[in-house]
Amino acid sequence: MLPSIAVAMRLMDIAGRRSLLLSTLPVLIISLLVLVIGSVVKMGNVVHAAISTVSVVLYFCFFVMGFGPIPNILCAEIFPTRVRGICIAICALTFWICDIIVTYSLPVLLKSVGLAGVFGMYAVVCVISWVFVFLKVPETKGMPLEVITEFFSVGAKQVAAAKNN
Predict the structure, then answer these.
(1) CA dist., res. 72 & res. 144, Å (int)
(2) What is the domain extent for residue 105?
(3) Which of 3, 23, 24, 89 can pair with 62 through a Cys bridge, CB separation 3.0 to 4.6 Å?
């Protein structure tokens, strides 16, 4: 995973945060779908173990390149300076709450929907995440914090003006 972190650090400044998210999420989806297929289709133990291992390693490597670090970086970039600290804390709290939910719901989900169902649900969440990133997450690569703050404040002003009309 360490090489993936190094690659991600370099690519964030070259390709941008949004494009890195949009390009790593499909690999997460494919890895999860391969795990679903591997759970449903009967194959030899060695083949199943190899496919599962490769899928999990790919998932972790691409998660570390995309959805692992980038949301934290975006949180640090998109909030105004006066509220940045509290907003980053709220984002971190949300991350950990979701992590705890996934951790504690996994055994229950395994019993109720099985391994293929769990991986299928995670794949659906990744698809929804890709759509959200595609529609709502702006590219912040190379933008000064002041420009990013202005970008979001202009959007907020337009929404407020539309509500008043």
Answers:
(1) 17
(2) 2-164
(3) 24
d(CA 89, CA 87): 5
Angle, vertex CA 78, rays to CA 77 and CA 84, nearest 5: 80
CATH code: domain of residue 143: 1.20.1250.20
Task: Note whether 84 and 28 are within 8 A (CB).
Answer: no
Q: What is the pTM of this model?
A: 0.82
Quick one: angle between helices 2-14 and 45-65, nearest 10? 40
The DSSP letter of residue 127 is: H
List CB contacts of 4: < 8 A, sequence separation 6 or more: 60, 61, 62, 64, 65
Grouping H, G, I as helix, E, B as strand and the rest as coil, residue 144 is coil
pLDDT digit string, tens, across residues 1-21: 677 778 888 888 788 889 999
